[in-house]
Amino acid sequence: MKTFTLFFICIILSSCNHFEFSPNQTFDSISLKDINATNLKRLGSGVNDDTVKFVLTGDSQRSRDETVKLCRTVNAIDGIDLVVLAGDITEFGALKEMLWISRTLQDLTMPYVAVIGNHDETGRGKESFRNMFGELNYSFVYGGIKFICHDTNSREYDFNGQVPNMPWMKEQLKPSQDVTGFVAVSHVPVNSLDFDSKLREDYMASFAQTPGFLASLHAHTHNHEVLYPDKSGIPYIVTSSIGNREFLVIQIVNNKLSFERVPF
Amino acid sequence: MLTVSCLSVRAQQFKFLIPDEAIVQYAGSIGFFSAGAGYDVFGNKRGNLSFHYGYVPENKGGELHVTTVKLSYKPWEVHLKEWGKLYPFNPGFFASYTFHKDLGFRFPKGQYPGDYYYWSEAIRPHLSFNTELDVKPPKVLENTAVRRLGFYIEANTNDFYLINYLQNMKTLRLDDIFMLGIGVKVKF
Fold it and tell me: From which domain of life does this come (chain B) (predicted)?
């Protein structure tokens, strides 16, 4: 009996982190908080960095094994300032999935930020994303480049005309002293059936009208492609998925953007 | 007279509805705390069927109401002297339904094409196994209806975690996907 009790107590004590209240809970005693804000603080403003070089990746859903390999590959590349994960961190919008992926991404030697994808908005995912990563629409400036990270998962809102949030977007696209160029980062690309068709024209026109707007960056389709959906010449660049073992390294020098596909 | 005897026959018939045990559980993926009623089932009474209501308060992960049906089986029984028995490994299955405005039984048909998402947000199927220590109640409970007390620890996983595990067996371990709960059964 004594041995059993001791054994029992040992199991319980060693596994306190394993007491789950629900797979639908949106935070727990060990889940991370405000990852985006913390990592952006670490990133800094890059005022003296004339070469902005970052990784665009996405769709880490059900791909933790591959995410480990991605981290190894990215860490071996010189001069990467940050990694942008463009949505579908999870398959089922579960807190545990976000935890598993974010724990792996902590192995990156540079900061990363996450943008929300449609799968992350199923179940209680939106709330879990807010708790773990932060706002669904946010922006930051690094090396004079403004990254406008936002939610384009219109289908999850039943195409209510408010996602992407155009008034917010237009506010973000206003010129400012410390900004020389703009990139937009979101999960669903503008040509997708999952993007609100009512907002498509206004969305593309807003980018086209913004001086210094360089590119719109996406994931979602799991296949790399570059689209020119209007006559502005602005590229809409889609990265392949982590599961398909390819990401993009994007470089901005003198407000000129170039990119390279990196298989891993 | 006829009605009365009918009713008493009915009452007899429905006697099986009276639960064999009351259950209180902490965690275990069906609530911060949950309460339930259980029945010994199958001819050898080694099966256990139970119904639970669980609650997660706002400050423990966002407010949730959860109902659960569990079925488990005790294949082995170890006698530990007269005061207790150990059921070392009891596999089981349970299904939970979580009530929350964000969680639908199914994804709305008008909003999504037929096979867009393939799971239900509100229903979770779980696999479980538990270890139960069954003991004689202490003296203070001697003249009450309490027959035995059961203390158990239960590990469970669900379809979401299992799919992630099966596709990522290099980086996820079984203890990443099995979650724990502990509970007490008061057996009548």
Answer: Bacteria
